[in-house]
Amino acid sequence: MSQIPTVECPTCGAPVEFTAENKFRPFCSDRCKLIDLGAWASEEHKIPVAPDAEDELFSGDFDPRH
Ligand SMILES: [Zn+2]
């Protein structure tokens, strides 16, 4: 008796049988796999906001030494 491990599809959350036969794992389908890859690609194309830009604004208005 062997139980097939299941994972949640990262794209749609559907239960996916994590087997060697499932070439789309951990995704439920080729479509979800492509959607996830597309999401990653679009993330990389976003222009990151400088993390210290806001800090500089605050330090100009507020001097902690006073
Ligand atoms: Zn899915």
Automatic annotation (TrEMBL):
Its cofactor is Zn(2+). Keywords: Metal-binding, Zinc. It comes from the Bacteria. GO terms for molecular function: DNA topoisomerase type II (double strand cut, ATP-hydrolyzing) inhibitor activity; zinc ion binding. Coiled coil: none annotated. Zn(2+) binds at residues 9, 12, 28, 32. InterPro entries: DNA_gyrase_inhibitor_YacG (IPR005584), Znf_NHR/GATA (IPR013088). Binds 1 zinc ion. It holds the Pfam family YacG. GO terms for biological process: regulation of DNA-templated transcription. Belongs to the DNA gyrase inhibitor YacG family. Inhibits all the catalytic activities of DNA gyrase by preventing its interaction with DNA. Acts by binding directly to the C-terminal domain of GyrB, which probably disrupts DNA binding by the gyrase. PANTHER family: DNA GYRASE INHIBITOR YACG (PTHR36150:SF1). Interacts with GyrB. This is DNA gyrase inhibitor YacG. It comes from Pseudomonas fluorescens. The lineage of its organism: Bacteria, Pseudomonadati, Pseudomonadota, Gammaproteobacteria, Pseudomonadales. The gene is yacG.
